[in-house]
């Protein structure tokens, strides 16, 4: 997808939890250069907890591993379709500090715990970033179906097959990633606590979310650049 693959990593214990919302709910929260991407007329707000494992510059023998939690939506932008991040909470003080200092991106320090028991994963996050809105998340999720690869044009593909992301900092930034198509499973989630919507100025969406668990995936990433 692109020539310079600067970072490599494995994403594991991933969960996609998505709520359909009216596009106007999202539009007012986006930078001017971005517009809402929709599927069958709906925009989506998604919460994605996962573990970013063994992240390192390409060719380095040793990497870092830490959990991450983000609230996202899907957009059309100057570089094409992609994910827009409202927040990226991470249990990695060094990475958070670098992202905020260099780019003023919406990264926040958080205390996180991830525990796996067979097919069941518990993911808990409590934001500890000084001066930032409080944000907590506590959920247990478990796979409940056979693995599948989303077909092009389906809602599942719209939600997960995104190879570009945008984030608003000192200016609008864009990054690109490369990986094989996602392997998903339907999943159940016990969402005990979730204040990410409140922390980002959204009302909590009504209705039940669409839930997918993700198989581990090897990812390479380019450097983040101005969009």
Provide a descriptive summary of the structure in words.
The chain contains four helices and 15 strands. The radius of gyration is 16 Å and the shape is globular. With 227 residues, the chain is mainly β. It has a 15-stranded mixed beta sheet that branches. The longest helix has 11 residues.
Order of helices and strands: EEHEEEEHEEEHEEEHEEE
Overall mean confidence score, pLDDT: 93
Low-confidence stretches: none
**Helical percent range?**
10-25%
**Alpha-beta content class:** mainly beta
Strand content: over 45%
Gross geometry:
globular
| Through-space gap between termini | 17 Å
Major sheet description: 15 strands, mixed
Number of strands: 15
How many helices does DSSP assign?
4
The value of Rg in angstroms is 16 Å
Summarize the topology.
Blueprint: E1 7-12, E2 14-21, H1 23-27, E3 35-36, E4 43-57, E5 64-77, E6 80-90, H2 93-103, E7 107-117, E8 120-127, E9 136-143, H3 155-160, E10 164-168, E11 172-178, E12 184-194, H4 196-199, E13 210-214, E14 217-221, E15 225-226
Parallel strand pairs: 6-7, 6-10
Antiparallel strand pairs: 1-4, 1-14, 2-4, 2-13, 3-5, 4-5, 5-6, 7-8, 8-9, 9-12, 10-11, 11-14, 11-15, 12-13
């Amino acid at each position: 997808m692109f020539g310079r693959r600067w970072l490599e990593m494995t994403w594991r214990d991933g969960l996609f939890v998505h709520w359909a919302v009216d596009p106007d709910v999202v539009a007012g929260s986006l930078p001017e250069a971005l517009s809402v991407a929709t599927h069958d007329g709906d925009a989506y707000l998604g919460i994605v907890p996962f573990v970013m494992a063994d992240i390192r510059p390409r060719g380095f023998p040793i990497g870092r591993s830490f959990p991450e939690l983000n609230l996202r939506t899907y957009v059309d932008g100057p570089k094409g379709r992609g994910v827009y991040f409202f927040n990226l909470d991470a249990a990695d003080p060094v990475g958070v500090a670098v992202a905020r200092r260099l780019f003023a991106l919406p990264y926040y320090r958080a205390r996180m715990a991830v525990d796996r028991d067979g097919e069941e994963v518990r993911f808990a996050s409590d934001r500890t970033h000084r001066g930032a809105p409080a944000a907590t998340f506590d959920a247990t999720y478990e796979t409940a179906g056979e693995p599948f690869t989303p077909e092009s044009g389906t809602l599942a593909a719209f939600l997960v097959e995104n190879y570009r992301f945008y984030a608003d900092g000192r200016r609008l930034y864009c990054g690109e990633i490369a990986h094989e198509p996602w392997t998903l499973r339907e999943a159940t989630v016990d969402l005990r606590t979730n204040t990410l919507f409140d922390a980002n100025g959204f009302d909590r969406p009504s209705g039940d979310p669409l839930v997918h668990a993700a198989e581990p995936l090897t990812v390479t990433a380019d450097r983040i650049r101005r969009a």
